[in-house]
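During the second year of the project, the team shifted from modelling isolated chains to modelling whole assemblies. The rationale, set out in the original proposal, was that interfaces cannot be judged from single-chain predictions alone. As a representative example for this report, we include one of the complexes processed in the last quarter. Its constituent sequences, exactly as entered into the pipeline, are reproduced here:
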Amino acid sequence: MGEKTMGVGMIGYAFMGAAHSQAWRSAGHFFDLPVKARMTAICGRDRDATQAAATRLGWEGVETDWRALIARDDIQLIDICSPGDTHAEIAIAALAAGKHVLCEKPLANTVAEAELMVGAARKARTHGVRSMVGFNYRRVPAIALARKLVGEGRLGEIRHVRAQYLQDWIIDPQFPLVWRLQAERAGSGALGDIGAHIVDATQFIVGDHLAGVSGLTETFVKERPLPTSSSGLSAGAGGGKGAVTVDDAALFIGRFHGGALGSFEATRFAGGRKNAIRIEINGSLGSLAFDFEAMNELHLYDGRSSNETGGFTRILVTEPEHPYLRAWWPPGHLLGYEHSFTHEIADLLTDLGNDTDPTPSFEDGLQVQQVLAAVTESAAASSHWQTLPTRARTAA
Amino acid sequence: MGEKTMGVGMIGYAFMGAAHSQAWRSAGHFFDLPVKARMTAICGRDRDATQAAATRLGWEGVETDWRALIARDDIQLIDICSPGDTHAEIAIAALAAGKHVLCEKPLANTVAEAELMVGAARKARTHGVRSMVGFNYRRVPAIALARKLVGEGRLGEIRHVRAQYLQDWIIDPQFPLVWRLQAERAGSGALGDIGAHIVDATQFIVGDHLAGVSGLTETFVKERPLPTSSSGLSAGAGGGKGAVTVDDAALFIGRFHGGALGSFEATRFAGGRKNAIRIEINGSLGSLAFDFEAMNELHLYDGRSSNETGGFTRILVTEPEHPYLRAWWPPGHLLGYEHSFTHEIADLLTDLGNDTDPTPSFEDGLQVQQVLAAVTESAAASSHWQTLPTRARTAA
Amino acid sequence: MGEKTMGVGMIGYAFMGAAHSQAWRSAGHFFDLPVKARMTAICGRDRDATQAAATRLGWEGVETDWRALIARDDIQLIDICSPGDTHAEIAIAALAAGKHVLCEKPLANTVAEAELMVGAARKARTHGVRSMVGFNYRRVPAIALARKLVGEGRLGEIRHVRAQYLQDWIIDPQFPLVWRLQAERAGSGALGDIGAHIVDATQFIVGDHLAGVSGLTETFVKERPLPTSSSGLSAGAGGGKGAVTVDDAALFIGRFHGGALGSFEATRFAGGRKNAIRIEINGSLGSLAFDFEAMNELHLYDGRSSNETGGFTRILVTEPEHPYLRAWWPPGHLLGYEHSFTHEIADLLTDLGNDTDPTPSFEDGLQVQQVLAAVTESAAASSHWQTLPTRARTAA
Amino acid sequence: MGEKTMGVGMIGYAFMGAAHSQAWRSAGHFFDLPVKARMTAICGRDRDATQAAATRLGWEGVETDWRALIARDDIQLIDICSPGDTHAEIAIAALAAGKHVLCEKPLANTVAEAELMVGAARKARTHGVRSMVGFNYRRVPAIALARKLVGEGRLGEIRHVRAQYLQDWIIDPQFPLVWRLQAERAGSGALGDIGAHIVDATQFIVGDHLAGVSGLTETFVKERPLPTSSSGLSAGAGGGKGAVTVDDAALFIGRFHGGALGSFEATRFAGGRKNAIRIEINGSLGSLAFDFEAMNELHLYDGRSSNETGGFTRILVTEPEHPYLRAWWPPGHLLGYEHSFTHEIADLLTDLGNDTDPTPSFEDGLQVQQVLAAVTESAAASSHWQTLPTRARTAA
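Output from the structure prediction step:
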């Protein structure tokens, strides 16, 4: 391991903060990294709660004001795990202060905010200050393998992209109005929270961007009990009710620049589906299928195989030849959800050590935001087609 | 078994004709039916080929003119298995001649034709002459069970309908321009051929109709070799090329009258998927999932089960308590594709014997045709939303 | 189709009789056969019940004495579907009378009976009178494909054979004492009824015989209500109780002549498993896996594939290149349980037309009986190893 | 978190050492533990290699003599991750020195060694010095849930236990003769390495012990290239060949005290199976099925459900109601292999903090060793039945 050490400051310590912390703690023990991360401080509004989190999660210090965190000389990287409405202000300030930034997805709650962030990132980049948006699913080995196989042309010309992100955690109408159900905090509902992941993951895999979309959104449960506390994925219900101001589900169809058709669905109302990210790609030469509920598997169909023995091959993505796997256990010994973050941190530290820009970039985050905005606009305009800004295919 | 016998005349003897023949031969051996079907004659243009088919498929006689078939006194039921462009004329003539009609799906190639057929069916019905459209997948036991469970309210209020019909048989650009790829014969491509099935099957299961749709269609391979013969699913390629005038794939999103969102996809370009009819329904109280490639299974999620032991239950739909199964083998002894037709014929003969109208009716076929037309129109209008004619929920 | 017609007489018309009847009715409609079967008569003890069965199942006439059936000049083939204790006497008489014989498995209830039957079959064979034992699962396309792949050396040297036949139909201690639970009628329990199938199927697939076994059997429910009627898989319970004289479950391990290890289990007490025939074969170059509950699938692992994209390929055994499939539907349109019998009859009629001996032969049936007997003996002798008679590898 | 801190010394730093290290680093960040573990030192023979491992794995210091490690005052717990032939001497010395011991499985290479270790553990226990054997799979949440459900009687009386541990890592005859293939280091081959896991896991789940067994073992590849280095799961091949002195595969059948039949298979020659631990339990009221290659799932069949909607329910074992899951992520966010060790350490530290004896105990390890020895003896005696020492059912 290298000698260079980098102080990290993290903002937010709920679900994402816990996942990131495990990654910060673990990456260096499994990957040979040019930079050693020091878990310097986390930041939250309540000092006692933040201190308790720091102890639990393994951070050395705490701050209660994110501006103070950014200002610290012993911190060179800011990891933003707070709700979406805070991303733009924090990220822009951090970059301006010369701090590298890892920002959780979605990059921002609006395209306008995301554009400002991209501007800040571009400017900072000229000074060697780098930024990354946290689409962790890119680092699930099976998804990284999918991208590699598509990039090598194994599937030929891509014709179909089919993606669903299905959850069911708010199916109960008595589930309270947590911040993720409030437009002013979360921007959108299923669309931005989970739809963003499948937009990014599919574009990443096929190496192409959506060129246009037609969408539909719905809020099935229009009022919910006010929560006793506004953070987290769950919370007790307090008195009174409030309006749900985000979508419960979003569906859209679209076309990629390269001609593929896309079908997307994000919902929090698919009973029995807990975190089912299902992606299927069909090309002229083959197909791929993935389901996060069996995240260590990738199913590959090679259209050039004989009819006699052809079919989908279930690849158990645990071989040393698979992305990230050389760092882990023998074949057949599965990885879990948190490993996607460990890989994200390992890749980020590698890029920082090598003075290269990490991906996905803020530009990538903006592009996803543009897709989400187009879906919302289409849904508001009788599903009329919304053309997306042209952008070259992503680099392999 | 009853004493009443009914002469059947079938038009067309390719794929559908062979499937129907096995059903006509088998239904009475497994189900106790009030009417006995006699396989009187089949009709095709080429006498020798038709005679060979009659021998092979078990029909007593042959005709080379469908009008002659309809005119025969010893035939009381006409089974139409010819391409879609012939349905309207034959069905209308047969009904006018007082013959019951079973017409393969899609009912017609256009809404206008389908409306004429519905008119004819209504008129005939007043004289006890009955008609049915052949959406055979309704009679797959797992799908019939799905409808029963939804009809009993087991899933609560339906929120999501997700359906894909995936095939790959024309993925090779050298596959010839068979009649199913010609608009004037087939009406549409994947949309009408297989999309029609998932529109009907999902509406049947949820007992509700689509209220509006937004669609997208594509023809990936725009020119193909001319075939040496124009019938069948496969054919040798002759000289020259011709334009593919139907869609290779159709995607659409929609809303049901009851508020459910729908996501549909029909394609013949999903490499490795041979006949994958995948249907998933999410309701406020539970979910269902089905894949025809495992057609003897239905997966049921009961949202009221405990978190500790809840999940999707794989029901092997081979118990005597399941639809149609009492007629067949002990539990665990699977049924196949052709059984859906045997059930269709058994139900049809039961209805005819009981003087009740079989379902799906020509009105049901017209309604599906209206959905397909709306998808086509939306696709031609920048995916703009197309509202469908209002119609009450289907009877349970 | 050829001109030669052969009269068939079937004995027994319960579960197996119904399955065979559908096969006799269907084979000629799908396969091009040199001999046409005529369903001349069935035989049962009760004339009214037998007549009703004949009408339902499509047989022309009835007999109430199997000797009379055998004596008929218009019958050239006897299909034995009665309980195991009747097989030897009927088959030997039929062969002596110059009638071809298809005998349901297990060939007999004892090795001694089976040996007599083999003697009769050998003698008859010299006169062109042929015989076959009805191990229908050999004709499940996925199993026939498995044999073909192993025969071609795709799996290399076979190391492991793993087979389970799991059912649960008598798990309820109130299920009555039907004939299949009586040693004098059925010979043995799970061992002979379903264990016989996996012995035959695995030996067929690997093309090798078991060389020795060590076994264990158990009767979990030792007394059951007497049935009101003794035939069939289910029956009402009458008054009184009787001793269960067959095994409820049988387990054994063994070695094949070629060095493979075998692990076998047959039980009627595996709750939730209805007809789960699970076979897995591991060789030096690859592996195969099959489960009858998904009978249209075969899973193949090619050990020479790269680690990056290797894994088990799910072959949907519905392609024209697969055994028996050219006769049926397009790819992806599944077959069911009964098709194994249709294939059996098609193969039998083809062999009879071609004057070749059908397989599996009575010798094959005897060899399976020897394995079952060795398991029983081992179970009675503290699981001590029982060496089986040497016999050359089966012909490919 | 509590204030008490305990120094840990670990011996061995290969595969098991890496897995244990991640657990020692992580347990306290996810579980609220009464004792804080300090990763004081690891021990290996080569100082440089050990120092590099210490740095990589997060240990403060190193020792090159395990006796020195045990002697350190700042170490209260010894974690034994070295090969099986070292377990007895180290564990007995550590316990005698008043150090708690966590010993990897199998407890020892022989029953005699295991008995000495049990003696040492019992003596130490009287002084509050505790011991545990590392059967980590007990802490896979799905397996812990299986035990809970069986313990609650959900499956009724247990009739069948079916377990396979399938790997393929030495299928290549050129794979070298690593220490795991040498009897004097590893004791046995597949039997002790992986067979031990399924013996323990199934006995744990059903809460009962095997009463007798009949076994079979085989060494398919009898000679292998000598390795260049003797540690680890893989190694380069050096010059010359040596005899494989352990089994490549072991099969056995058995009976549990409670009457259940057991079928077991452990092999390193199942091509395409990487770490397939498959366990199936059938009881009078229900069944369970598990496969480690889908380790976050448990399949439960409730025999009291209706035939109409019954079947195996796929429980995604990621709910807060499931064992260990409250510490981790939201539902649907999977865990991996390493979490079984984190749970093991968390349980161990909890027990040490609460002054209770951890499980599985050395007695449990001995009992597994007795089963393995009985299999070996039976295999050497023509599979003759070997009766196991009587022992009461395990406590729930």
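The two ends of chain C are 28 Å apart (CA to CA). The mean pLDDT of chain C is 95.
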